[in-house]
């Protein structure tokens, strides 16, 4: 495999970047999400990695494999995540689910000042902060985050399926 990759790079520079997403699609069609993610990471196709993590994260969590999705998302450069509030929140939640809540908190603290979160996203961030009582947050901080989440949720949000893919979100 390495020899073939070397020959491809030598004879057709840039072709690998085009072939990697196709390989990912092939693996996805066959239900091999892990291998597809690896190809997307090698292709540096960050939007598709984030989309894959969002689509498959729940299934992996239920199977006790959320760390796999976290590993994918940790490959995504922070600069890219900074332009995707939902991606940031996905990583924060994955860190929380995987028991590395402090890393999630550090990411959220670092990026919250440079990204705009809408009301629903702010509520989700507050819910995450409230759950950190189980990990490291003081009761006062967790309570304040929980109260903020409740205030934001009281404003009301519409549940939507904008992409028509059966994955609902809050708007």
Task: Walk me through the structure.
The chain is an all-alpha fold and 171 residues long. A two-stranded antiparallel ribbon has the order 1-2. The protein starts with a helix and ends with a strand.
What's the layout of helices and strands?
Blueprint: H1 2-11, H2 15-29, H3 33-42, H4 46-62, H5 66-74, H6 78-81, H7 85-97, H8 101-111, H9 119-131, H10 139-154, E1 159-160, E2 169-170
Antiparallel strand pairs: 1-2
Helix pairs in contact: 2-3, 3-4, 4-5, 4-7, 5-7, 7-8, 7-9, 9-10
Query: How is the largest sheet built, in terms of strand order?
Result: 1-2
Radius of gyration: 18 Å
Order of helices and strands: HHHHHHHHHHEE
Q: Strand count, sense and closure of the main sheet? A: 2 strands, antiparallel
Percent helix:
55-70%
Q: How many DSSP-defined strands?
A: 2
End-to-end gap? 45 Å
Strand content: under 5%
Poorly predicted segments: none
Mean pLDDT: 85
| Helix vs. strand class | mainly alpha
Q: What's the helix count?
A: 10
Per the principal axes of the C-alpha atoms, what is the gross shape?
Answer: elongated
Key traits:
171 residues, mainly alpha, 2 strands
Outline:
Helix content is 69%, strand content 2%. It has helices at 2-11, 15-29, 33-42, 46-62, 66-74, 78-81, 85-97, 101-111, 119-131, 139-154; strands at 159-160, 169-170.
